[in-house]
Design goal:
The structure holds 3 protein chains of 3 kinds. Chain A folds into 2 domains: 194 residues, Periplasmic binding protein-like II (D-Maltodextrin-Binding Protein, domain 2, 3-Layer(aba) Sandwich), CATH 3.40.190; 203 residues, D-Maltodextrin-Binding Protein, domain 2. Helices cover 49% and strands 13% of the residues of chain A. Chain A contains 19 helices and 10 strands. In chain A, the strands form 2 sheets. In chain A, strands 1, 2, 3, 4, 5 and 10 form a 6-stranded mixed beta sheet that branches. In chain A, strand 1, helix 2 and strand 2 form a beta-alpha-beta unit. In chain A, helix 2 runs antiparallel to helix 14. By secondary structure, chain B is mostly helical. Chain B has a domain of 161 residues: MetI-like fold. Chain B is built from 12 helices and 2 strands, in the order αββααααααααααα. In chain B, a hairpin with a 6-residue loop joins strand 1 and strand 2. By secondary structure, chain C is mainly alpha-helical. Chain C contains 15 helices and no strands. The longest helix of chain C is centred in the middle third of the chain and has 32 residues. The chains are: A alpha/beta, B mainly alpha, C mainly alpha. At the A-C interface, helix 2, strand 2, helix 3, helix 11 and helix 12 of A face helix 6 and helix 13 of C.
């Protein structure tokens, strides 16, 4: 009798232990501060919601540092299960076939339903391949939108401009008279090149914006509409309508927060941070202006931010855990929580509907602008871009734009250099892929 | 030169082993690796690579961006070396002159040696912040609208200022030490002979400090070329943009930030050659020094 | 013939040259000190105050709060990157590096100076060459090798590659060569072997030199920035100086920059090496100037 009791007790213990032996996975990300805490909240929620899997998020520094750390880990055979890769690094990760498992494949292999139409239109294709298969799961997605100081615009007697023509003829002069600098922005390449192309329905690079492959991809920035835009920027700068505070994001945001600048082009994700500050004024947001002269049918913008990639070379159990995490992450409740806390857009339509039903946008109208902008009309030029060495290409742009804005070079010279340097970088990247 | 010593065979080898092992693994192997990688263009994940011969080098030779950075590095090195040495010499001579408070001055002037370059850069950010930095505001009263991170020249000035601030103490210590080791007899003879302290300095003190000066020249050049990495990184806040940067910073930007292994290796090799040339030059000077001491 | 310079100090008329000397020295000292004082001031006020006004002449009341925030709060899932943790890592790096350099350097120098080795010259040149190339030019391949050996995010990986240069070896070699040869002869006559000679005679004689080297190397290790930036991406491994990079990143972020905490951490990053250098001034200066080749 005793023996049976002991062995049943032992078996029960063993069973209990196996039940508690969780598959552990890691997530490497580049979200610091309050954003990192939100990531931790999601992780804790996932771990608490079931007891088969446990995820540990690890902060690895900036986006660039996270990617470099991930590459080093991969070469040492110690890669994490999930890594957060930003837009500029997407080409590096996706071109290295074998480094990651496409998210769509991973989910389907683990019995999770996947339909790309569940995702908000402007988010679907940036991290997908040429056939529309989603390789990276958009995570902290944002789009550039226009924030404005409501009191400032009232004082000047204007409304937020819909077109750049309206801005330069009506809005800016009035704001200047009211004592404000009309405009500042925080990321010239992202807002005034990448999303400029998308909004105005212009191609950004050959090979279908680079999606069709690395060989022969060339950048298409040296075009008149873009050069005209920058020429206008210089004129606005001379008139006092626009001021550039350097390449740093915060350097251009602070003057808006101080009330010196009336309109600021930032990220839809900046909404969370701005609300927490005790600003002296009320702010709101709207979609980016466009040039009527370039197009009368402006299109959607595409996402910036980063996506989560599942790294290859992991065991089946860990892949199942990763799939389960993605499933949890994309559930409407979790997406709504993430959206509410950080200001990043929810990735699924279902989450968007949940937020609407909850009255979130009644309380915070500005929070909806990013999603609305991402849901505008699409075209083949609005899916995003896929270019290698893109971090360096952005550095080239930042450098030349800085020179334009400090009067060191002319617009046409700068764009010639950007085109030449970028194409050189693209062809060198193509050579690394052999 | 025969020296007295011990005759055991195995002990010295054992003693040398750790040093040799470490430098084999962490000096010679990386150096060789850098040279090898400079001839390839590799995928950072390791999935592919192409042999490109000297293409990485010709790309750099033809790059106006690289030329711009090289020019800035040269200018930066000259400015930092000159001002660090000049200010330190001035302060050392004065510190040598005074009797009262000499030790206090020495302490006050040398503690910055222990501040790390990036922390110095961080303090620089504080002082030169566009919106509320005290130095930025001060310069505005002089009509200089200082814009860190916007204006290339302003950011460059900030880098030079911070780098000099950090380096003056080292030079000061050496110069003061050099001054204090001038024999009393020489000083007294100079006092009698020379008409003014100015002549005294140029005719007597300066030549005696020359060996120290040469040594410091090399130290300062090395500092400006390499150790100012932290200053540059913090002052540009991690965004190259249209900011000045040194050659060593570019290696970091291309290699670590941009994942361009081949390109950054070629840049490393170029810098290696530069440093080699510099050191050979220094050793020629040192040899000559030994002859006339 | 009477020397007017013999007039006792109390009655000596004010020499303008001396006043000028003191003025220059005071200005120099202020140049060094004021940035630090400003940094200190910002740690005593709230973040919102700093954002609006920058350093001011007010001493606020937040010193204690900011200190606690810096030392004990952490962000991140693991809650590991507190100021306390970073302080500990900096200590480990500084002390570990200094000890490693001294031990390995002394051993290698001993082998080179006191033994007759056939390949001594060859070993000497191998080691000497490492002085030619600073870490920065071989930083990326060193990183790859550290990664291959599994040394990323470990203390070994943080410290060991930094030791791969021969500065300490050279320093001790020079010092050993200056020790009179009679000591070795005397030891041999007494029947002491190489090991006893080393521990009983050489090491005690080298005490001052070891202390001086320790101070210099501790400061050098503590202040390392580029290598820790690359090798440690786990928050729990950050040193204070490497953490500066993190702080600048946070300040560029989109939420309220935590100036109080950041500036406090910068201050904590400065204090230990500065205190060491000030308290042990004479050893430090001696060590620095003696390592002149």
């Amino acid at each position: 009798m005793k023996n049976i009791a002991i062995s049943s007790a032992a078996t029960l213990c063993m069973l209990a232990n196996t039940a508690f032996a969780e598959t552990e996975i890691t997530l490497w990300h580049g979200m610091g501060g309050a954003l990192g805490e939100a990531v931790n909240d999601i992780a804790e929620g996932f771990n608490a919601s079931q007891n088969e899997y446990a995820i540990t998020p690890v902060f690895k520094g900036t986006y660039e540092e996270t990617l470099t750390a991930g590459i080093a880990a991969f070469r040492a055979g110690e890669q994490p299960n999930i890594i957060q890769v930003f837009d500029a690094g997407a080409a590096t990760v996706i071109a290295a076939q074998g480094a990651t498992i496409p998210v769509q494949d991973l989910l389907e292999a683990n019995g999770v339903d996947f339909d790309i139409e569940d995702y908000i239109s402007g988010l679907r294709y940036f991290f997908a391949d040429a056939d529309g298969k989603m390789i990276g799961m958009p995570f902290n997605s944002s789009s550039p939108i226009m924030y404005y100081n409501m009191q400032a615009l009232e004082a000047a007697g204007v409304t937020a401009p819909v077109t750049w023509e309206e801005f330069e003829t009506v809005t800016a002069p009035a704001l200047k008279d009211a004592g404000y600098v009309a405009l500042s922005q925080s990321h010239l390449p992202w807002i005034f090149v990448e999303n400029f192309m998308s909004r105005h329905d212009l191609p950004f690079a050959t090979n279908n914006n680079g999606y069709d492959g690395v060989d022969g991809t060339e950048i298409l920035v040296n075009i008149d509409p873009l050069k005209a835009h920058f020429t206008a920027l210089i004129e606005w700068q001379d008139e006092g309508y626009f001021e550039w505070f350097g390449t740093g994001w915060n350097d251009n945001q602070t003057p808006f927060e101080n009330g010196d600048v009336a309109i600021w082009l930032g990220s839809s994700g900046s909404f969370g941070g701005l609300s927490k500050l005790d600003l002296d004024f009320d702010f709101s947001a709207t979609v980016l202006p466009y040039w009527e002269a370039v197009t009368t049918e402006p299109k959607q913008t595409f996402i910036g931010g980063a996506a989560l990639f599942a790294m290859s070379g992991q065991s089946d159990e860990e892949n199942a855990a990763t799939a389960a995490f993605f499933q949890y992450l994309t559930s409407p409740e979790v997406q709504y929580m993430w959206h509410r806390e950080t200001g990043y857009v929810p990735v699924t339509e279902a989450a968007y509907e949940l937020a609407t039903a909850d009255g979130h946008y009644g309380r915070f109208p500005a929070a909806e602008i990013g999603i609305q902008q991402l849901s505008l009309d699409a075209s083949e030029n609005t899916r995003g871009y896929r270019m290698g060495f893109y971090v360096q290409i952005r550095d080239v742009m930042n450098r030349e734009f800085g020179r334009i804005l400090t009067g060191e070079t002319s617009v046409s010279d700068a764009f010639n250099i950007i085109e030449a340097d970028s194409n050189e970088l693209l062809s060198r990247f193509a050579q690394t892929q052999n | 030169m025969k020296r007295a010593g011990f005759a055991t065979r195995w002990l010295p080898i054992l003693l040398l082993l750790p040093q040799l092992a470490i430098i084999a693994v962490f000096f010679y192997w990386p150096a060789a690796q850098a040279v090898q990688s400079s001839f390839y263009l590799e995928d950072p994940f390791g999935f592919g690579s192409s042999f490109v011969g000297f293409e990485n080098y010709t790309h750099l030779a033809g790059s106006s961006e690289y030329a711009r950075i090289a020019k800035f590095t040269l200018l930066f090195t000259i400015l930092v070396t000159f001002f660090s040495l000049a200010l330190a010499l001035l302060l050392a001579v004065k510190a040598d002159n005074v009797i009262r408070g000499a030790r206090t001055y020495r302490t006050l002037l040398m503690w910055v040696y222990a501040v790390a370059p990036p922390v110095a850069g961080f303090i620089g950010l504080l002082m030169l912040n566009q919106t509320w930095g005290p130095l930025a505001e001060l310069s505005k009263t002089f009509g200089w609208d200082f814009k860190l991170g916007v204006n290339f020249g302003d950011t460059a000035s900030a880098m030079v200022l911070v780098a000099v601030w950090k380096q003056v103490p080292v030079n000061f210590i050496f110069f003061l030490s050099g001054l204090q080791s001038i024999p009393k007899s020489v000083r007294e003879a100079a006092l009698i002979d020379a008409k003014s302290s100015f002549r005294r300095f140029w005719d007597v003190t300066f030549p005696l400090l020359a060996p120290t000066g040469f040594f410091l020249l090399i130290i300062n050049i090395t500092y400006a070329l390499f150790d100012t990495f932290g200053v540059v990184d913090v002052l540009v806040k991690g965004e190259p943009g249209n900011n000045p940067m040194t050659l060593v910073y570019k290696i970091y930007v291309d290699g670590f930030r941009g994942n361009d292994i081949g390109g950054s290796s070629a840049q490393s090799v170029i810098l290696m050659v530069l440093v080699l040339a510099l050191t050979i030059f220094q050793f020629r000077l040192v040899e000559r020094r030994i002859h006339y001491t | 013939m009477t020397d007017t310079r013999q007039i006792p100090v109390a009655k000596r008329p004010l020499k303008w040259a001396r006043v000028l000397d003191h003025t220059i020295l005071i200005l120099g000292s202020l140049f060094m000190l004021i940035p630090l004082l400003m940094l200190l001031q910002t740690t005593t006020t709230t973040d919102l105050e700093t954002i609006k006004n920058g350093p001011e002449l007010v001493i606020g009341t937040q010193l204690d709060d900011n200190f606690r925030a810096a030392m004990f709060t952490a962000s991140g899932f693991s809650g590991e990157n507190t100021g306390l943790r970073m302080l500990m890592n900096s200590m480990i790096l500084g002390i570990g590096f200094a000890m490693g350099k001294i031990i390995i350097g002394m051993m290698a120098a001993y082998a080179l100076v006191y033994f007759r080795l056939r390949f001594a010259t060859f070993a000497f040149w191998l080691i000497f060459t490492t002085l030619l190339l600073p870490l920065e030019v071989r930083i990326l391949p060193s990183y790859e090798i550290a990664q291959k050996l599994g040394l990323l995010n470990t203390y070994t990986g943080l410290i060991l590659p930094l030791i791969a240069s021969a500065t300490a070896t050279f320093f001790f070699r020079q010092f050993f060569r200056s020790i009179p040869e009679e000591m070795v002869e005397a030891a041999r006559i007494d029947g002491a072997g190489p090991v006893r000679f080393f521990f009983d005679i050489l090491v005690p004689m080298s005490q001052t030199m070891i202390a001086a080297m320790f101070i210099i190397m501790f400061v050098f290790g503590w202040n390392q920035y580029l290598w820790p930036t690359m090798v440690t991406t786990d928050e729990g491994m950050y040193t204070l100086v490497r953490g500066i990079k993190q702080l600048t990143q946070d300040l560029e972020g989109t939420s309220i920059p935590e100036y109080g905490r950041a500036n406090m951490l910068a201050l904590i990053a400065i204090l230990p090496p500065v205190l060491v250098v000030i308290l042990f001034q004479s050893w430090f200066v001696k060590g620095l100037t003696e390592s002149d080749k």
